[in-house]
Amino acid sequence: MLIKESRNSLQRFLFSSSQNPIFPFLRNPSSAYSYNQIQSYVDVYMKWKKDSYYDSIDSVHKSLQLKPIISLKNFFISSSSSPHDNYSIPISAVSKKGSDFDIHIKVARFLRNYPSFFEEFEGPKYNLPWFRLTHKAIELDEEEKMLYAKFKADILERLKKFILMSGSKKLLPLKVIHTLQWYLGLPEEFSRDPLEFLGNYECFRIIEMEVGLKGLAVTESYSDDNNGKILSMLQKNAMRRSLYNGGANESIAFPLFPSKGLRLKQKIKDWLDEFQRLPYVSPYADFSGLRPDSDLSEKRVVALLHELLSLFVEHSVERKKLLCLRKYLGLPQKVHKAFERHPDIFYLSLKNKTCTAILKEAYQDKSTIEPHPLANVRKKYIALMNESDFILKNRRVNNSRPFDRANVSVKDLDSSDDERPEMAEASL
């Protein structure tokens, strides 16, 4: 009798609607995330396969090489007292600032590596080296500024979506945003003075998160449909094709783009088919009810990474740059596994002594991913950067020809050594 009463008391405690701290999902079986309570995490191993197509995309792999060049170009424009002379400055004005631009060699040598951007000449006093911007670099800078002015609302909308991925808090630290600023396409003036750049956009507000840590918050509601929901790029494409109605527990399959020669075992194919049939969890939805050790939680992580890369300029990112997001976007400690377990959605490139995650869909089906406003001008910058290799090659050829030693000065011999290209080491 005593045993029976104890059993009944235990059942009332576990399944009571008023108090259920142990199994909260039993309290509301119709919850949007109740499905994941019976869906366990399946541990599968995917073998990495090299793909020469993604390894050869210049706009992806030369983006980080371009970044310090753009920073130097902006420094020339902001600090030069001679805009009429193509923003010329003496080498002494920048020679000690290499660390500010993430340059690991002498700044003078770095500038000489890119003659298509920076032109060297003798200064007005003591024959010291000066540098100025080339006409092509100035033209691209003017085009870039025009794009920032024309598409400022689009760029800030991408920033807003990035912040809204933090869930109910709608807040991210400024230092986290600065880490991914280059990928979001935000100008350098944003890091100098965020409030000045945001201007009249009152939906943003800077908040003191804790002592010494400021954050940027989205303070107004934002939605893409009549139900007050923010739609991801994947949801918009599925709705456009009548494959998704926006209801709870609806599934959306990720577009898959297998690399040539990549063969998966049958058990992995079966797991992927089951993974595709799982309910879609929006990267903008509250994720607090998800179990971190479930496949449904992994689908939410993959959806978030897919959406995040779709917002970036080149739809790619250095994988290590995402580590700062784990705490604020609810990503797992080993977030890199999401890329490794889904090679048909993402490609991991190991070029340039780093690991770059690339969204395959952006380069296989360009009609589904909205291009970033700065994508085209970045490609033009990279094309101009590539011209430097051609210029330096011609100089080496000319220097290797027979010449009259009597007419060559010591200065010419010294400068030829400095003009040999030496690329900055990529930070790991």
Could you give a short description of this structure?
The protein has 428 residues and is mainly α. It is built from 19 helices and 9 strands.
Tell me the number of helical segments per DSSP (H or I, 4 or more residues long).
19
Low-confidence stretches: 13-32, 408-428
Spell out the helices and strands N to C: HHHHEHEEHHEHHHHEEHHHEHHEEHHH
Q: Quote the beta fraction.
A: 5-15%
What structural class is derived from the secondary structure elements? mainly alpha
Biggest pleated-sheet summary: 3 strands, antiparallel
Task: List the defining traits of the structure above.
three-stranded antiparallel β-sheet, disordered C terminus, 428 residues, 19 helices, single chain, globular, mainly alpha
Structural notes for this entry:
- InterPro entries: PORR_domain (IPR021099), PORR_fam (IPR045040).
- GO terms for molecular function: RNA binding.
- By secondary structure, this protein is mainly alpha-helical.
- It contains 19 helices and nine strands.
- Helix 6 (135-150) runs antiparallel to helix 18.
Which SSEs are present, and which pair or pack?
Elements: H1 2-15, H2 52-55, H3 58-61, H4 63-79, E1 89-90, H5 107-112, E2 118-122, E3 129-133, H6 135-150, H7 152-164, E4 171-173, H8 174-179, H9 181-184, H10 188-192, H11 194-198, E5 204-210, E6 213-218, H12 233-240, H13 266-276, H14 295-311, E7 316-318, H15 326-329, H16 336-340, E8 346-349, E9 356-359, H17 361-364, H18 375-400, H19 410-418
Antiparallel strand pairs: 1-3, 2-3, 4-6, 5-6, 7-9, 8-9
